[in-house]
Amino acid sequence: MASLALLAGEQQTLLGTIRTSLTVMVYPLQRLVSSPTRALQDLHETVSSYAKLREENARLREEQMLLKTKQLKFAALEQENTRLRGLLDTSFKLGEQVMIAELLSVNLVPYEHVVVVNKGSRFGVYPGQPVMDANGVVGQVLRVTPFNAEVMLLTDPNHAIPVQVNRNGLRTIALGTGQIDKLSLPYLTSNADIKPGDLLVTSGMGGSFPQGYPVATVTAVSSQTSPFAKVGATPVAQLDRNRELLMVWSKSEPIPRIPEQAVSKGSANPHATK
């Protein structure tokens, strides 16, 4: 009987109305019961999204730093390529035997301008050998070991180089002052034919430097009460910026090299003699 009554009510749409009314009445209760679950789900999604965003942000920061580092490296490689091209071009202009050496360290002792390069006696480097960059004379080799060499810069107070004025051939000696951008020419008379802007080149005197290498540009000439003029010059080489240097051989014979076996034997037996 109950089933028949329900079927009859269904046909008359009475139960649909009652069901709709009950659904409307129960809906707030359903929302209230399900709200903690939805709140937990929303919180979980929020935390997960925040963690993902932080992780992605950290990853993007790392990628940005990596790309910036690579960009800086590319810029450094571009500058190095430019320097090496300049050195290579200079080597062709010199017409001498040359070899590129990389700078290893700089002596930080006050008033002593000495750098260390990665080429030594096993490459034929010898004391007194001229050293240049793409612009002009840097200095000369001071001490040599099989694997590296110390180069005394032009501006070292203990360094002197015979030069001549390229304009008129006037010869003198340029001395280091202990300042990286200054040379002194103390042996010129007050009436010497020299003026600011004159290019100083190696005179070839003394046998260390071949003739004609650019050395410095005269920057100041002032007369004194003494018979000698006070003349200052700036080296044309970039003494405080070089990363590669040119080791120059002015002789015609090939560059001598010590065999690797001899070097290893000499290092293994320090008392061995050649």
Sequence-ordered SSE layout with sheet pairings:
Elements: H1 2-11, H2 14-94, E1 97-106, E2 114-117, E3 130-132, E4 137-144, E5 149-153, E6 160-165, E7 171-176, E8 183-184, E9 199-202, E10 214-222, E11 230-235, E12 244-249, H3 260-268
Antiparallel strand pairs: 1-2, 1-12, 2-5, 3-4, 3-12, 4-5, 6-7, 6-9, 7-8, 8-11, 9-10, 10-11
Question: What would you note in describing this structure?
Answer:
By secondary structure, the chain is an alpha+beta fold. It folds into 2 domains: 1-79; 99-245, Rod shape-determining protein MreC, domain 1 (Thrombin, subunit H), CATH 2.40.10.340. 36% of the residues lie in helices and 25% in strands. A 6-stranded antiparallel β-barrel has the order 1-2-5-4-3-12. The protein has a 6-stranded antiparallel β-barrel with strand order 6-7-8-11-10-9. A hairpin with a 4-residue loop joins strand 3 and strand 4 (137-144). The longest helix is centred in the first third of the chain and has 81 residues, at 14-94. The N and C termini lie far apart (127 Å). The model is unreliable at 270-274 (pLDDT under 50).
Question: Any descriptors?
Answer:
disordered C terminus, 3 helices, 274 residues, alpha+beta, Thrombin, subunit H, six-stranded antiparallel barrel, 2 domains, six-stranded antiparallel beta barrel
